[in-house]
């Protein structure tokens, strides 16, 4: 059974930082693209970043230069370092298996972790 468990969310002031983690199990982590997606209140699911099995990385424009995705294949863990956070980054963040197109088609994702950016 595929399991993706996110952690690390919370309340942070604008300009602050958070590091999200996602523990993966039930599949061969090293073989898959992994992604972070988010859903802001009242909005649809939005792609944030992806990392391929080979380490190629892409970001949505709004987080470039502020967020860093990484993976530790030895620990089956995906990370998202978020710096210079803005109120518009407030959302539930989900770890997902696969590319954005796979996620949009129903690829597994975790239960999510809430990130709130507010003063």
Question: Outline of this structure?
Answer:
This protein has 119 residues and is mainly beta. It is 4% helix and 47% strand.
Could you explain the architecture of this structure?
This protein has 119 residues and is mainly beta. Strands 2-10-9-4-5-6 form a six-stranded mixed sheet. Strands 1-3-8-7 form a four-stranded antiparallel sheet, with no helix packed on it. The radius of gyration is 13 Å and the shape is globular. The model has no long low-confidence stretch (mean pLDDT 96).
Helix percent reads under 10%
Radius of gyration: 13 Å
The side-by-side strand order for the widest beta sheet comes to 2-10-9-4-5-6
Overall shape: globular
Helix segment tally: 1
Spans of 5+ residues with little confidence (pLDDT < 50)? none
How would you classify the helix and strand content by structural class? mainly beta
Largest sheet: 6 strands, mixed
Provide mean pLDDT, rounded: 96
Between the first and last Cα atoms, what is the distance in angstroms? 40 Å
Secondary-structure element series? EEEEEEEEEHE
Number of strands: 10
How much strand?
Answer: over 45%
What features would you highlight for this structure?
119 residues; 4-stranded antiparallel β-sheet; mainly beta; single chain
